[in-house]
Design a protein that fits this description.
There is one protein chain. With 612 residues, the protein is an alpha+beta fold. It is built from 20 helices and 19 strands. The longest helix is centred in the N-terminal third of the chain and has 32 residues.
């Protein structure tokens, strides 16, 4: 039987027909899968190749002061982006756009790296593009078909540096933040809060982005807006109404002594509302909008006077004589003394303790004083003895209970924790079990030594003294309902006695130069020793005496004396209560050898002197 026998021919024909039928079956099944079962997948893949989705940035929410005055809003801005056909072509395209400002090699490298990580997002070239550049690019759109110029809201701070440390500023999200998964709606070019209220309430202020879908060619050329995709409109962030009084804040800025560093905090002691929070020197937060030039950033961040440093909440200073009121409160609470109690040793200008002589600020001494008088004249010798009477463990325990070990709880990021020993073990660890003496008690009793507090923490303490019950809520810039009040644990009579002593400080004590006609002010001066230069000046006061509505604290670095700072505080109180006050700035002489130093902590060595 040969190969061409009809039997074999028929068998081969049958096999061939079966094979062809099988192939048609496979192809039909595959076509069915593509057209029916896998349709959605392949349509999506096709759309991915020809559709690009660009976000429509949401305007950030407004930030207002307590009276509705705008502190942060948005103005029209523009961003420039491109839809490159593939990541490999992107560097060459960017180099052809050399007329775009800021598009140097470093910026090109950043754009390319980000596009490799997020290839489905448009490559943003420039944020906050100037209008003349936008106009030129729009005119040449036909020659740059992959270009997308989009209106984008731009943050604006109408009061600029006046309120910078309270508001903070905004900046573009980093790649690390995008990949962290911690930021809602993270995408390239997203603007987020970087400091201050902008950072604290970023989620509330940011809003929800919209989106616009573009149809592009295989070369990335934009054809048109894809009409079959519904455009999602952006939703603006929530408005944030703060407790700040911008007119009071601006007044503080106008009277703060030029050339000096420091901070001012004004607070309503009844509810914890912060009326002003100021730090000097300041900066213009508008500089950060749209991205800052690297050279400008280095100049600002490395400036010797540290304008980005918020001295109201981050600076830590020896609390000096304002802390004497805390020591007095501890002694009254423990029934160790009354306001009429005298110490065994009168003040003759200093006190010998062991082989060391601890000075009083007044060289000829104050004589034999009561506690009320010791507060009025800020007698160090009285408080040295009162500290010994209380003992160091009690000073530390009571200080922690009053809040000197903790942050104030203000609703701002980066508040510094105080330097305050939790117990005597601190000294054993730092100096060794025999490396320190009871002299640290004398230092602590006058607000020196291992004790460094922020301005906001000291104002929080004085807010408690300002209220009849000796309690106050934490300071805050956004009212959020009821706050837990923290108490000094004193009776109303004891609180009233301390307020009386603080009133005498202003009416006939160390702050007589700060008296204001028509307003009864209670307050305390302080001059904090600073090993790095001239002493820092403190003054914290509140008014009216009988029913305080405002407490104001100020710290001015290298001011030499607390009495020099008092007029700044009393003018601020006068402005708030009476609506007018002298607006000319304070005139202080800046010592030539002084240098900014935010952490003046005096070690327990050598003779000690306090201040007024």
């Amino acid at each position: 039987m040969t190969w061409f026998h009809p039997h074999f021919v028929r068998r081969r024909a049958e096999a061939g027909g079966l094979f062809v039928g099988l192939m048609f079956g496979v192809l039909a099944s595959w076509f069915f899968y593509i057209q029916v079962i896998g349709r959605d997948h392949y349509v999506l893949q096709s759309n991915d190749n020809r559709l690009r989705v660009a976000p429509i940035p949401a305007p950030r929410g407004l930030i207002l002061d307590r009276n509705g005055v705008v502190l942060a809003d948005n103005v029209p801005g523009y961003s420039i982006a491109i839809f490159p056909p593939d990541p490999e072509a992107l560097p060459a395209i960017l180099r052809r756009l050399d007329h775009v400002p800021g598009l140097d090699s470093a910026r090109i490298e950043t754009i390319v790296r980000r596009f490799h990580r997020f290839p489905h997002e448009p490559a943003v070239i420039l944020r906050d593009a100037p209008f003349d550049l936008v106009s030129a690019l729009e005119e040449s759109r036909a020659t740059i078909p992959i270009l997308d110029v989009q209106a984008e809201p731009k943050r604006r701070y109408p009061r600029g540096a006046v309120v910078a440390h309270a508001l903070g500023y905004v900046g573009e999200i980093t790649e690390e933040e995008m990949l962290s998964g911690k930021i809602r709606g993270a995408r390239g070019g997203l603007v987020i809060g970087r400091d201050g209220l902008e950072r604290q309430y970023d989620e509330q202020l940011r809003g929800t982005d919209g989106r616009k879908t573009y149809e592009v060619t295989a070369l990335g050329h934009i054809v048109e807006v894809y009409e079959r995709e519904q455009e999602d409109e952006p939703e603006q962030g929530d408005t944030l109404r703060t407790t700040l009084d911008i007119e009071l804040q601006a007044f503080v800025d106008s009277v703060f002594p030029p050339g000096f560093s420091g901070g001012v905090v004004a607070m309503d002691p009844r509810n914890g509302d912060l009326l002003a929070l100021y730090s000097a020197p300041s900066y213009d937060p508008n500089l950060f909008v749209g991205g800052m030039d690297p050279e400008a950033w280095r100049a600002l961040s490395q400036a010797e006077d540290q304008p980005l440093f918020n001295r109201a909440i981050e600076g830590r200073y020896a609390p000096a004589s304002p802390f004497k009121l805390a020591v007095a409160a501890m002694a009254l609470k423990r029934d160790s003394v009354t306001v009429d109690s005298h110490m065994e040793i009168p003040c003759t200008g200093g006190l010998w303790y062991g082989n060391r002589y601890f000075k009083c600020w007044r060289e000829d001494g104050h004589g034999n004083l009561s506690l009320m008088e010791a507060i009025q004249y800020s007698c160090d010798v009285y408080f040295y003895q009162l500290g010994l009477k209380l003992s160091l463990p009690n000073l530390l325990a009571d200080g922690a209970e009053m809040g000197f070990l903790d942050r104030s709880g203000i609703d701002l990021p980066d508040e510094s924790a105080p330097v305050f020993p939790a117990g005597t073990e601190y000294y054993d660890t730092r100096y060794g079990p025999r490396g320190w003496t009871s002299g640290v008690t004398l230092n602590m009793a006058i607000g020196q030594g291992e004790n460094a507090q922020s301005l906001i923490n000291m104002v929080s303490f004085y807010a408690k003294l300002a209220n009849p019950d000796g309690a106050a809520p934490p300071p805050h810039l956004k009212a959020q309902g009821d706050f837990e009040r923290r108490s000094l644990g004193l009776s109303e009579e004891q609180v009233a006695q301390l307020r009386e002593a603080l009133t005498l400080v202003v009416e006939g004590g160390t702050a007589t130069g700060a008296r204001v006609a028509g307003v009864s002010i209670a307050g305390k001066t302080g001059t904090a020793q600073n090993p790095q230069g001239a002493p820092h000046g403190w003054f914290i006061g509140f008014a009216p005496r009988e029913n305080p509505e405002i407490v104001v604290g100020a710290i001015i670095e290298h001011a030499e004396h607390g009495s020099s700072v008092a007029p700044l505080v009393t003018r601020t109180i006068q402005k708030h209560l009476l609506g007018e006050a002298p607006s000319y700035p304070l005139r202080l002489v800046l010592p030539e050898d002084s240098a900014p130093e935010p952490l003046p902590i005096v070690p327990d060595t050598g003779a000690v002197s306090s201040n007024r």
